[in-house]
Specification:
This protein has 248 residues and is an alpha/beta fold. The chain has ten helices and eleven strands. It folds into two domains: 94 residues, Udp-n-acetylmuramoylalanyl-d-glutamate--2,6- Diaminopimelate Ligase, Chain: A, domain 1; 114 residues, NIF3 (NGG1p interacting factor 3)-like (Udp-n-acetylmuramoylalanyl-d-glutamate--2,6- Diaminopimelate Ligase, Chain: A, domain 1, 3-Layer(aba) Sandwich). The strands form two sheets. A six-stranded mixed β-sheet has the order 5-6-8-9-10-7, with helices on both faces. The protein binds zinc ion.
């Protein structure tokens, strides 16, 4: 027997959401509900389609990587009104966890991707005070990395300006193409991120580095998926991944 508050308190601690790192997301329980939670849904985005699917499949709580509340709420009108009303009407709680779920050393999107690629000697990666990602060593080829990503449902839009033999890979899921600069400074052979940025083309070309855009959505399903078994075991609840891809 667990309430959304019990589950949220557990996650707050487990994911170290109060780690002092700046985040535009209001991480934690964003919308409370009442009663016991017997089924929890997991998704990338807090949006109406996710909420409807979660309610239809009998979820009492939803855990998303991109929550509903960013920088706080200034008014409960339009999208805020319809989304929050739907959550209230369906007694559906919402927990959002952004950067702490990118960077978490066990459940994070980036460490999951690092494991998937079999990286060794894995260390935090990113810009000063923004080390959400990981960098690690390997001995593989660009083609092999692309094939692993493809097998796991990711995109492989590639700027293949570097070496074919890959000995180091840096990973930052989602919208982190601007970290290509840091990957160049650290001299890695391949940078894997989610969403492309136009200027990165010439940046990568002139620095002779490989960059793969795996998709913002596709690189960010891993953190919430990793939490599913944890929540299922700890609270004896049913769990379901609610897939609402954005193609971005
Ligand atoms: Zn994201």
């Amino acid at each position: 027997m667990a309430s959304s508050i019990d589950i949220a308190q557990f996650l707050n601690k487990e994911l170290q959401i109060y780690n002092g790192m700046e985040d535009s997301s209001c991480n934690g329980l964003q919308v409370q509900n009442t009663g016991n939670v017997t089924k929890v849904g997991f998704a990338v985005d807090a949006c109406m389609e996710t909420f409807q699917k979660a309610a239809e499949s009998g979820c009492h709580m939803l855990i998303t990587h991109h929550g509903l509340i960013w920088y706080g709420i200034k008014s409960v009108t339009r999208k805020n009104y319809t989304n929050i009303k739907f959550l209230f009407d369906n007694n559906l709680a919402l927990y959002g966890v952004h950067l702490p779920l990118d960077m978490h050393p066990l459940y994070g999107n980036n460490i999951q991707l690092a494991k998937m690629l079999g990286l060794k000697d894995v260390r935090p990666f990113g810009r000063y005070k923004k080390e959400y990602g990981y960098v690690g060593k390997t001995n593989t080829t660009l083609k092999k990395v692309q094939s692993i990503l493809q097998k796991n449902g990711m995109k492989t839009d590639t700027l293949a300006f570097g070496k074919e033999r890959i000995r180091s890979v840096a990973i930052v899921s989602g919208g982190a193409a601007s970290d290509t600069d840091e990957a160049i400074k650290r001299n890695v052979d391949l940078f894997v991120t989610g969403e492309p940025l136009h200027y990165v083309y010439h940046l990568a070309k002139e620095a002779k580095i490989n960059v793969i855009f795996g998709g913002h959505y596709e690189t960010e399903v891993w953190g919430v998926k990793a939490l599913m078994s944890v929540i299922k075991r700890k609270f004896k609840v049913n769990v379901e991944f609610i897939d609402v891809p954005t193609s971005i």
